[in-house]
Amino acid sequence: YLWPDSQSYETPIGGLTAVPMPDGSKVTLNTDSRIRIAVTDTERRIELRQGEAFFEVARDPSRPFVVEAGSKRVIAVGTKFSVRREAGDVRVVVTEGAVRIEDTVLPAGSIARADEGGVAVQTRRLAEVEEQLSWRAGMLVFRDRTLADAIAEFNRYNARRFVIEDAEIGDLLIGGSFRATNVDEFAELLEKGYPVRVKREGDRLV
After folding, report:
1. Is the pLDDT of residue 2 over 80?
2. Which of 45, 121, 127, 180 would bridge with 157, disulfide CB 3.0–4.6 Å?
3. Structure pTM?
4. Distant-in-sequence, close-in-space partners of 31: CB < 8 Å, separation ≥ 6
């Protein structure tokens, strides 16, 4: 595919930016993300090169809205959804309308993960789906997530990173709402609420 008159955008670690498109659609870029956008008379095409983006698609059936993430293509008409690239996996979260990935149609409330083996889809209440997108307000919302998962999320948003030294504590379950870039507050809450000690070593919280 040739990219005529394309525009590229990116965010730093911990950054968040809104990108208006010429067709009236809007893109919100999450931390450490890169996209390229091309809008022509026949289609609207976005390449998600890295990271995660939320799309609010202006309805225009004559111009398909196509998001390319690695080898996967996500196609929408008028909808709201996010796409996240993680190594070879692509995760899609749909909050309004429907999108298609491969031959699978994802209605609102879908959380899908696509890899070389195919597409796996979970259906959730919209309130839970919105929690997956709390990053748009700078928040991370966890509901019975393991500490290992929660820390992996925090590390996406911060140059100062958590390191789990004791593997056993990685299985502790955690819930709540946290500011994505406030690692010190999260470390303090862990020490108060869990049998956990945090050592601060330069840009590492061990």
Report:
1. no
2. 180
3. 0.92
4. 11, 12, 13, 14, 15, 16, 51, 52, 135, 156, 157, 180
